[in-house]
Protein 1
Amino acid sequence: MKITVFTSNQSRHNYLVNLLSNIVDELFVIQENTPNLLGSIPIHYPSTKIMKSYFSKVTNAQKKIFGNAHIKKGNKNIKIFPLKLGELNKCSLKILKDFLNSDVYIVYGASYIKGELVEFLIQNKAINIHMGVSPYYRGRDCNFWALYDGNSHLVGSTIHLLSKRLDSGSILYHALSEKVSDPFIYTMSTVKSAFHSLKARIEDKSIFKIKEQTQDKSKQIRYSKKIEFTDKVVKEFLNKKIDIKKIVDLSLFKDHYLLKKNNFCI
């Protein structure tokens, strides 16, 4: 089997690459390199004291869940096409052709894909990992907003088919994790749940048998945008007492996968 992954280069992205490399003959990685490897604030957010405090907690949670993952050196079944952030949509299908002959295409952490590339990926039923539970939370920083809104039961990830509109493709299933009191560990653990569930369901080929479910937009609670993630909101979040004990109604989720606490950290 051949898989192509469109992703970034932080620890969690590298962890996904290594994980998938264990189940394929060839893994093609189109990887955008972002400048925030040392835990600095992502470039699309302002560099303020509040943001530094918030993203340091995100970085610590990522380290606890994924360690300092690097793509395995010497692994001959991994082929990498490195790009700078923002270059992906400048690449033609011809440039990427050696990386576009796979059985499965996965998008996680890449730039918003446009043009002929997104057309190709949609045609080939590419899978997108959305960190948030669609259709309830769509857009940016969805698990942050679910916790901010007091909806800890709607923290998780959605594995769905890629579409031109953000987080709008038909849902395959949801990935969740058991609850813990630390909101940063809790949200990051749902990332790991998405990775391990996808590996398992590709490996046993059940991913190809799942019946797609069109998203019911009437159930949407929030469509969040980057501009809403402000110092004021983040400060309120950091000062909140986040209640993660809300009972989960599993009927809200499709074919859910649950990651157990003993599998959170490496």
Protein 2
Amino acid sequence: MSDITKDSWGATAVRLAAAIKARELTAVQALENQLSRIEALNPALNAVVSLDADGARAQAHAVDAAITAGAASGPLAGVPITLKDGIDVAGLRTTLGTPMLDRVADTDATVAARLKAAGAVILGHSNVAPFLGDFQTNNPIFGRSNNPWDLARTPGGSSGGAAAAVAAGLSCFELASDLAGSIPQPAALCGVDGLKPGEHGGP
């Protein structure tokens, strides 16, 4: 059985959040494990872009402080994640894979704000296809992402960086987007689960 204090990057979000709340390890320890994993593997994969280690550390310290103080912690307390480079995070570069839309976001997208409120620690963005509109991830700003199972192959797109990051343990989980296969196709190519929610909650 793996030691979660060293191998937290391989834990599920549910297991990791429970371990942090139970103080088996701190959110800062979980984050540093994740950053070490990214440092080791991301140069070859090019899956995580616009990494914000300092901002993530500040978020992780805040989670630990809240837990120490006995304050209520969210269901994702201390879980380090990335978001597809099309989802705004305040202070983080967002490009959608094209110089035309390259900017630093002023505010969080609704989903980013909700993830932060749930306690998630946002590390940075994952690489995407230009304009989020291709079935492989290769753009003029960050270049090509590679499949973690075979670096000569594509992880798909447009959420290729997201799928590669999850498959390689660079991100505990990812939130992506999908118009025409941008979630299930990369997930299938990288050997992870990808869910595209329906537009309606029921029949």
Protein 3
Amino acid sequence: GSEWVLGRDGSIKWNTLDLIPPRTKSIIINPVGYELSTPKLELFNHSHIPLLCDILSAVKTHLKGTVNHTCGTHVHIGFPMNEIYKDHIRCMLAYYSHMEKKVFDPIVPISRRNNLYCRKTTTDLENKYQKLNSRYSQFNTSQKCDNLRFESRQLEGTLDIYEAIYWAKLQTYIVYDLLDSTHDLLCDGEDKSYIYRSKLMQMNIFDILFHYNFDSSMISFFIDRVIKFKSRSI
């Protein structure tokens, strides 16, 4: 929509003793979990990103907002439904799930790799009529009117503008390429992009970062995360 919405979120849990200052343990504090939902923003719009930055700053300054390990950042990526069918989406989910371990798991904390609200991405390639995936998958999809929307849930909760934008940018590039190559395969009847997609699916996070020629600050940001979360498999 077009509105900013701040709503209650019961999935956010607090350890209240950590929030109560020393010597005042008898004071009862009941912090409340909230989720901030943005209106539709354009990733490369020069006015939308500063606006998001201002909002996050206001949350921290005026609402004393903070995040903990039970919070998550959800990024929705929309596409027009232009000759995109259920088979495209099914293949797309399968390709993405194949990349999760080597590309996305290494840059998120363990708490975001598989939990109740952020489950491994799966899809049944045989059953064409079942629901393609769970709403709580790390990566899921939904269709509304003539728009297709993918949701990435793996990033931990954040109030840092760079963290949010870098993650959204990484997801957008990969999702676009996977969806585009899947569309070519199923519409043309010939997998012209097989070599490219196979190469993409075999990459780890380092390969991906240099494959897209991201700027040095974004590359350094994700490399620091690999080190921070001790992703020894990479």
